Backbone:
């Protein structure tokens, strides 16, 4: 959850957010224990820990979380689980989703399933569908609660209101007038393409996971740095790889990079990569270093990662020479 999300929750609801600070790389068992500890601290304070939100794959750094174990921790401590699976469907294996049994699960189809945007899924087990009261914006199928003192016989279309069960949940999302429905019509064709042309989900994952791993190692070797990985080698079980750039911060030498300059250096590198090399490589000043995230796709190969390494190596050399500073900053 981003800081802005927690601020919004506090401002618009009676709920409070407790964020767990995590610096990657971290082992899966420790991450799961951090969640357990955080929930138990809230409960020991006499408060009600209602719901925990976490990712399948984090956006940055691009690492896979042990979301199955995090769901189990929530179940053990009687807390609802909400999974932000934006980088989920079409990326990692979700065939065991029902068996893991999260309380709520969302995922974007346009990120990895090859559909146009915006297109997403929302998975809610039958037991929790009554908790979803409205779409955003509220759709024509919104129904008042039975206890509300309103006439619920017919809506403006003459349709009966206050239905129960899965049909009510489906009807709720049937027509939200501001949503473009056409991307959803592409889902069957996207799945067909991935099956008939690309060889199926298992082959896509096998190729992309291996390319991310091998491409990341190749890039790190060229740069003389490292990829981000934990001792269990689980963070990289996805289509992302994270590589540290060969830039040193808080150095004693004159003209060296200061930690406070990290975000500006990253912005300069990303801007130059886009404007001069027509490529977009997400980067971030993270844990005292600049890391970049690269994605593996079925249309890429190891040569593409080696090309990216050359681009990044050249940009880092220019940073070291001070080219990233404006003329005024160079004088100062």
Residues:
């Amino acid at each position: 959850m981003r800081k802005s999300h927690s601020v919004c929750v506090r401002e618009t609801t009676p709920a409070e957010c407790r964020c767990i600070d995590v610096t990657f790389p971290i082992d899966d068992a420790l991450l799961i224990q951090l969640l357990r500890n955080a929930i138990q601290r809230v409960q020991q304070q006499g408060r009600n820990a209602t719901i925990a939100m976490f990712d399948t794959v984090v956006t940055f750094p691009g690492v896979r979380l042990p979301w199955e174990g995090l769901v189990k921790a929530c179940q053990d401590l009687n807390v609802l689980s909400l999974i932000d699976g934006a980088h989920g469907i079409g990326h990692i294996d979700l065939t065991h989703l029902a068996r893991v049994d999260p309380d709520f699960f969302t995922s974007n189809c346009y990120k990895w399933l090859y559909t146009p945007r915006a297109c997403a899924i929302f998975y809610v087990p039958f037991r929790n569908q009554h908790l979803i009261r409205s779409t955003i914006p509220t759709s024509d199928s919104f129904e008042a609660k039975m206890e509300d003192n309103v006439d619920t016989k017919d809506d403006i279309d003459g349709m009966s209101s206050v239905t129960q069960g899965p049909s009510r949940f489906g009807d709720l999302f049937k027509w939200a007038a501001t949503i473009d429905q056409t991307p959803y019509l592409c889902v069957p064709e996207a799945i067909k393409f991935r099956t008939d042309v690309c060889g199926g989900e298992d082959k896509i994952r096998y190729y992309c996971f291996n390319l991310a791993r091998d491409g990341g190692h190749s890039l790190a070797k060229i740069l003389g740095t490292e990829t981000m990985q934990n001792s269990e080698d689980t963070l990289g079980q996805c289509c992302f790889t994270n590589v540290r750039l060969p830039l040193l911060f808080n150095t004693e030498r004159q003209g060296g990079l200061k930690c406070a300059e990290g975000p500006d250096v990253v912005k300069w590198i990303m801007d130059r990569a886009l404007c001069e090399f027509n490529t977009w490589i997400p980067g971030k000043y993270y844990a005292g270093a600049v890391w970049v995230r690269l994605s593996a796709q079925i249309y890429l190969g190891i040569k593409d990662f080696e090309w990216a390494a050359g681009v990044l190596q050249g940009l880092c050399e220019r940073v070291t020479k001070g080219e990233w500073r404006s003329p005024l900053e160079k004088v100062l």
User: Anything to note?
Assistant: The domain at 201-317 is CATH 3.90.1150.10 (Aspartate Aminotransferase, domain 1).
